Amino acid sequence: MAVQKSTQPASGKPAPDSTRRSEKSRRAIYDAALALVVEVGYPKTTIEGIAARAGVGKQTIYRWWSSKADVLMEAFLDLAEQSAPDAGPEPYVFPDTGDLAADVKGVLRATVDQMRDPKFDVPSRALAAEGVVNEQLGRELVSKLMQPSLDLYIGRLRAAQEAGQVRPEIDPRIALEFFISPLAQRWLQHTGPISHEYTDTLVDYALHGLAPR
User: Which of 7, 9, 41, 115 sits at 20 to 30 Å (Cα–Cα) from 194?
Assistant: First the structure.
């Protein structure tokens, strides 16, 4: 019989779980970073402030991240993942039922639900606003947050092209903006309510055009 190594120290007390401790600190840092960027804005959010709010030392943050932008980006990515609807083991797979309109409407409805969740809405607005004036942060927001989602739209539209549902000469990267851009503008600028009915209409207009059928 193999001898199993004891998981307890000589004192008989259980060994501290460093993984659990690290995860608890990481979660506290995420929460602190998102709370501060909402309360004081991105420019006034600092590593020192995040550390104090999270109850950790600055060295803990610098051990995992090189800047406040990295902290906030990872915290926001985590928030976006938590706010996403539960879609099973592969939540980031764009549905393909064969009905392009229904698939896009379903994804946009889930996006609206996320946008209307205060946990997501408030910090995302703060970061999006800063991304407009901070070019580096803006580029990171696009590459790390937006581009993965845009790639899913592109893939779904290309599948629709292969199925003969979309004209072959259509550029999917441009076409997806008919769905995404109006919703983003309305959300950022408060130009009107965002709802399932609104995004359903966007899809209908985009897929069928404005000319008489």
Answer: 41
Match 């209307």 to its residue by tokens: 116
Only one residue has tokens 């408030």, namely 122
**Any alpha helices (H) in 84-146, and if so which ranges?**
100-115, 118-133, 135-140
Name the one residue in this structure whose structure tokens are 């902290």.
Answer: 71
For residue 4, give the DSSP letter: P
Alpha-carbon distance of 119 to 77, in angstroms, equals 13
User: Which 3 state secondary structure label does DSSP give 57?
Assistant: coil
DSSP, collapsed to helix, strand or coil, labels residue 69 as helix
Would you give per-residue pLDDT tens digits along the chain (213 residues)? 333 333 444 445 544 444 555 889 999 999 999 999 888 888 899 999 999 999 999 999 999 998 888 898 889 888 877 765 554 434 567 999 999 999 999 999 999 998 888 888 888 888 888 888 888 888 888 888 888 889 999 999 999 999 999 999 999 999 999 999 999 999 988 999 999 999 999 999 999 887 776
Alpha helix ranges (H) inside 166-209: 172-175, 177-189, 196-208
Token couple for 148: 């993965």
CA angle at residue 109 from 213 to 153, to 5 degrees? 70
